[in-house]
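Morning!

This is the sequence you dropped in the shared folder:
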Amino acid sequence: MNTPITNHPLRLVEGETSQSPITVLSYLRKYGLKDWSLELSTREKFNNIIVIPAIQENENIKLLLTSLLENDKKYLETSLFIFVINNLKSSNSEIKTDNREALEYLRRIIYERNDYGINIGLVDASSSGLELPEKDGGVGLARKIGMDLALTQFDYTNTDKKILICLDADCTVSNNYLASIIQSFNQSNIHAAYVEYEHILPHNEQEQLAIICYEIFLRYYVLGLQYANSPFAFPTIGSTMICDFESYVKIGGMNKKKAAEDFYFMEKLAKITE
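The structure's back. Tokens below.
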């Protein structure tokens, strides 16, 4: 049975906060979405926020959290992981049931027992009345909801980079994932980047060959762009995208596209960064 939200010491975050820079306040007033809130049990602010859209990923979320736990504690302490559990009203019952279980699981971690030691925020974009709209509902909108709400949770009072990181719920990460990103952005004054990636090889030989071919295609495509001296010679995979909050606001935030949201987002970032 679904645990009532009101039984938890729930804190809902909507829109802007008083310490936010004027650029962030202006962005949220112009582009921010009002239909979804962020569930938190802490009033702490963070330097690094990882946004993770998820649809029917309950079991994968557990694997992701386990891999994140292998990262250095000092980076975990300054980072917030926002899960955006989402579906459409028209989504099938299997998706909705899995999402409901994911909500219950994450709420238990947030409010009752956090064995992971990881700061977690939750956006419910799947329960009745909170579903994504049929017209725009998809990964682009799910990312935007989480990334816009992330702007309200940065600690703008210190000089460390405020980093927005995109990830997917069906991913796992290496034990230097956070360290590499945070150190690179702060030491080299990076404004936008992507992380290296590889797909996990399945046990089935035919599926292995398919994934290998796909990996070769992805890398060959980028090499071709590099050969042509294209300014857009980089992979456009949603779960690898990173930028600082200034760049995010400057390009007008994440788009609402159901597909290729990653390409258009990275393309905009490339136009304002070197």
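Headline: The chain has nine helices and eight strands.

More detail when I'm at my desk.
O.
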